[in-house]
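Protocol step 4 of 6: record predicted structures for both targets in the notebook before any analysis. Target 1:
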Amino acid sequence: MRTKTLNYLAKTIAWKRTTDPQYPFAAEVEGERCIIRLNDFPSEHLYTLLVNGKEIVSFDDWSVKWSRPAKEKTAGQAAPNKSMDARRKQRLSSKVVR
């Protein structure tokens, strides 16, 4: 597959999260496989865009035309336990002197 000459930074791209921490985002643009590589920042640019395995451009600032998926919560960022909050409120309300 031949890589077309496109200004990928100016294109609207909806990226999807991958499971590879070195290549955390992927997308398909006009039939071309695009991936974002994290580099050794600050000695290198933060990101490199690869299209069909070929380095296209390295950059530091994410394009305003690109959308990243929301970061997934880790186990340590789990939502608070609502049932525990309800029990705590019930306990506090029962201690109120009337």
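Target 2:
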Amino acid sequence: MAQQDSRESGEKPAPPSLVVRRGRRGGDHDSHHGGAWKIAYADFVTAMMAFFLLMWLLGSTSKYDKQGIEDYFNTPLSVMLGGKEGMGAARPSVLQAGGRDLDSTLAGVGRKSQPQLVPAAAVRASNHSNDDSQHMEQLKARLIALIDQNPTLHAYKDQIRIAMTNEGLRIELVDSLKRPMFSSGSSMPADYAQAILFQIGAALNDIDNRVSIAGHTDAVPYQGGIAGYSNWELSSDRANAARRALVAGGLHEDKLLQVRGLADVLPLNRSVADEPTNRRISIVILNKAAEQAFFRDGGRMVADGAQAASDIFPALVSQTHPGGTAP
């Protein structure tokens, strides 16, 4: 028993187990700040980017644009409302749709490039003139087709002339040596001439344009009859006879703008005094430019397109036909 106790006491006892608990350093620090440093760094990068962007804009902006920006922030209301003369609103600036000329090769230097605005009235006048010209061309084509299809008009096709002039579309009924429209010294149209005028009056009734009628005679002096009665009165009477025939054919009288007699001042052939084609009736469907010029100038108009319209009303022609060309 004693030996057994001594053997047991001779054995080495097992070492005790040690448990080491180690705390994390900076635990309180991380839990307090988290990822806040990332937000601060992002703000710093954003501020630097904005700074360099501002420097680039200042370097590529002209002094006029800088002055405009300065004036805007100094007095924004006066700039927006127009300002006074000599202030920032009168200077070229970005607030007035200006900007640096991209063609400039110098860095930081820009030329003022103001847009050239076309007045709305000029745009409308140009568009209206183009529409009017197209309408006249369509009317011309329709009249030519009517002459070819209508037996009454086709039989006298050689005495009907249609052409575009500065005033509009001109229809001329010229005399013929073998087939005169009027007897010598008479204002009564022949039956065939009256039939032609009837057909033309019916064809012109559905247009919106106004109509001008002119009578022409040859250069042979009028003889006999009432004292003082001349080719002036004769041409006027023939123009009025044509007016009555057109109205009888269906043309409304409110579309008539002018009826005049021009005697022999605008002959088609000046070399022959009694040339038959000089005796004629001219019917002009006026375009809007000629109609406006008539009312503006008190009835002074181009006589059947014999004189260029630009010589009579150049401002109106240049406005309605940019480039200086007439239709």
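Step 5 preliminary note on target 2. Residues 120-320 form a domain with the 60s Ribosomal Protein L30; Chain: A; fold (CATH 3.30.1330.60). DSSP finds twelve helices and five strands in the chain.
Proceed to step 6 after PI sign-off.
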